[in-house]
Amino acid sequence: MATLYGVGVGPGDPELLTLKAVRILSSAQVVAYPANPRGDSVALSIAGHHLPATAEHIVMAMDFVPDRRSANAAYDSGAEQIAARLAAGQDVVVLCEGDPLLFGSFAYLLPRVPTATRIEVVPGVSSLTTCAAAAVRPLALGSEPLLCLPATLPAADLARALDGVAAVAVFKVGRHLATVAAALQQAGLAEGAVCVIRASHPDQQILPLPEALHRPDGVPYFSMILARRPSP
């Protein structure tokens, strides 16, 4: 039986690919990945040089916008093509930025493939740990709980989720920066918070939250805010 591999390729730096990921990539028969409408793929740019020249590519081109119709259509089409290759006895490797199951694109394919599919997930270095490493900041200590939130939540939901939290990582900041900053301020978590922009990429930046708020062009989607409640 053919295998569907969900391979985490890490947050951007190709040196953060795991040895297992490289081994699977180097023998891939068919590779699939999300891309923008022009066919550009961050995941492919990270892992592409490990792929055989003979590998077939399934490009799941989509608009990266809040409206999910384009993404759903791309995943539907990609899943059909993947299922056909698996039925023909070919292994398929799906590339996923970061980790496949932490806000990962691979998770959207899982419910779309046949239930009898043999699946192997190869964990990747996540943006969460990469941002903490870039900022040289512990995510949590001792018995502190750590909350992970998407910045795309409505403002009221962010405020409720942050109430009483000791430490938080806010993913996918982008155009939601001001809303997230206000919620952190209200929750008493803004002091010392940092915004990590494009962690592990050559243009990576680590900014105190006030500096991030004053960037003329805002911050990109691939930004994360790390905050911990000050010690009493």
UniProtKB/TrEMBL annotation:
This protein's name: Precorrin-2/cobalt-factor-2 C20-methyltransferase
Transferase among keywords: yes
PANTHER family per record: COBALT-PRECORRIN-2 C(20)-METHYLTRANSFERASE
This protein's pathway: Cofactor biosynthesis; adenosylcobalamin biosynthesis
Keywords tagged on the record: Cobalamin biosynthesis, Methyltransferase, S-adenosyl-L-methionine, Transferase
BP-aspect Gene Ontology terms: cobalamin biosynthetic process; methylation
Alphabetized PROSITE patterns for the sequence: SUMT_2
Source organism per UniProt: Insolitispirillum peregrinum
Similarity section: Belongs to the precorrin methyltransferase family.
Pfam families: TP_methylase (PF00590)
GO molecular function, one term: precorrin-2 C20-methyltransferase activity
Listed InterPro entries: 4pyrrol_Mease, 4pyrrol_Methylase_sf, 4pyrrole_Mease_sub1, 4pyrrole_Mease_sub2, CobI/CbiL, CobI/CbiL/CobIJ_dom, Uropor_MeTrfase_CS
Ranges where the Tetrapyrrole methylase domain occurs: 3-208
